[in-house]
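STRUCTURE:
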């Protein structure tokens, strides 16, 4: 159980959700969050929500890194495959052992890293297999 403030109106809320990702006090504020007319503020709030989830996982994120993350998410390009996915198709990749952010990648590339358990030897073996 975590106490925090609504991102829209600032009302104190108690987050009982399993992942502690509740960011608004009501459905009305949630609708406002996702339908804000100011795109900069909307993107800022969406980045802030994603960063808060990382912080709950133990990843240390300072404000300069939040700005860097926002810029990369706005570009919408995966750092691994180089394809354009837009803001919604990307995720913030982080190292589970060091609790550091590595970069912005698409969900497909993130799944590849996850299935390989972030092990470069497995990924190199996959490359060798593809080159047969």
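SEQUENCE:
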């Amino acid at each position: 159980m975590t106490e925090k403030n609504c991102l829209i109106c600032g009302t104190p809320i108690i987050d009982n959700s399993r992942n502690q990702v509740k960011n608004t006090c009501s459905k009305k504020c949630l609708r406002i969050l996702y339908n804000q007319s100011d795109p900069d503020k909307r993107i800022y709030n969406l980045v802030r929500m994603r960063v808060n989830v990382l912080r709950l996982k133990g990843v240390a994120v300072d404000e300069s890194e939040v700005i860097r993350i926002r810029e990369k998410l706005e570009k919408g390009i995966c750092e691994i495959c180089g394809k354009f996915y837009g803001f919604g198709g990307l995720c913030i990749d982080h190292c589970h052992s060091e609790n550091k952010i590595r970069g912005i990648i698409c969900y497909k590339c993130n799944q590849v890293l996850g299935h390989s358990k972030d092990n470069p030897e497995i990924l190199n073996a996959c490359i060798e297999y593809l080159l047969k």
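REMARK: The mean pLDDT is 83.
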